[in-house]
């Protein structure tokens, strides 16, 4: 079966027992974020990596994609676009589960920036826990909305650069406080002298979290 989102796929040489879904940032694409798998796949021999393109072309970068539009400074509009994106990603996850015979507990949802925001929303509103959620340089899009819809308590890791000028690092601390209040297991790391990207240190921290929490 084909997948509903155009996806960069990195398959393991061995039997597929788990999956890592990597959601790119605003204006990026699946190929960009698939670079994370280059190191991770050596340590996760039964894991398939799926890196979908966003369902929309990016409004400011026609060569890239977006999960939701940021051209309007209107929280209600943005939240409506987020809900649409959640529906697309949830369909994609169901397809992956069917295609590779996987359960939620064998899936890691991960993302960078806007992709992190989507991983948090999708992962925490699921009826069934995922293996883990990992977010780089993101935030909770709308705390009031998410608080009403949280259904899972999936173990979550958030990593952020202390010099991030795109998504300021205070968002990491706000997300931590929110998730603690909602009794969601949360680990955070603030990477020193790091701007809006995923350094090797962050990648290594995330790999350990995947190995500790993903069911194979």
Q: Can you walk me through this structure?
A:
This protein is of the alpha/beta class and 216 residues long. The protein has helices spanning 30-33, 37-43, 75-100, 114-124, 143-149, 170-181, 200-213, and strands spanning 7-10, 18-23, 47-52, 56-57, 65-66, 107-112, 132-136, 156-161, 186-191. The protein is built from seven helices and nine strands. The chain has a single domain (7-213), classed as 3-Layer(aba) Sandwich (Rossmann fold). The strands form two sheets. A seven-stranded mixed beta sheet has the order 1-3-2-6-7-8-9, sandwiched between helices. A two-stranded antiparallel ribbon has the order 4-5.
Oligomer: single chain
Q: Report, as a whole number of angstroms, the end-to-end distance.
A: 23 Å
Would you give the CATH topology? Rossmann fold
**Class in CATH?**
Alpha Beta
Order of helices and strands: EEHHEEEHEHEHEHEH
The domain count comes to: 1
CATH superfamily: Alpha/Beta hydrolase fold, catalytic domain
Give a count of the beta strands, DSSP E runs of length 2 or more. 9
Helical content class? 25-40%
Mean pLDDT: 96
Low-pLDDT ranges: none
Key features of this structure:
Rossmann fold; 216 residues; two-stranded antiparallel ribbon; 38% helix
Write the layout of secondary structure elements.
Elements: E1 7-10, E2 18-23, H1 30-33, H2 37-43, E3 47-52, E4 56-57, E5 65-66, H3 75-100, E6 107-112, H4 114-124, E7 132-136, H5 143-149, E8 156-161, H6 170-181, E9 186-191, H7 200-213
Parallel strand pairs: 2-3, 2-6, 6-7, 7-8, 8-9
Antiparallel strand pairs: 1-3, 4-5
């Amino acid at each position: 079966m084909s997948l509903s989102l155009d996806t960069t796929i990195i398959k393991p040489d061995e039997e597929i027992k788990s999956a890592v879904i990597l959601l790119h940032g605003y204006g990026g694409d699946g190929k960009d974020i698939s670079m994370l798998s280059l190191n991770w796949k050596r340590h996760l021999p039964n894991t398939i990596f799926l890196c979908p393109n966003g369902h929309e072309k990016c409004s400011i970068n026609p060569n890239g994609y977006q999960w939701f539009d940021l051209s309007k400074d209107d929280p209600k509009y943005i939240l409506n676009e987020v809900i649409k994106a959640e529906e697309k990603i949830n369909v994609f996850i169901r397809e992956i589960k069917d295609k590779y015979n996987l359960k939620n507990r064998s899936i890691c949802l991960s993302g960078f920036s806007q992709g992190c925001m989507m991983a948090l929303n999708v992962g925490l509103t699921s009826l069934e826990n995922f293996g883990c959620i990992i977010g780089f340089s993101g935030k909770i899009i709308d705390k009031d909305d998410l608080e009403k819809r949280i259904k899972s308590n999936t173990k979550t890791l958030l990593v952020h650069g202390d010099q991030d000028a795109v998504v300021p690092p205070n968002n990491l601390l706000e997300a931590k406080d929110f998730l603690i209040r909602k009794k969601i297991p949360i680990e955070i790391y603030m990477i020193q002298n790091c701007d809006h990207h995923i350094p090797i240190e962050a990648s290594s921290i995330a790999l350990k979290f995947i190995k500790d929490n993903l069911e194979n």
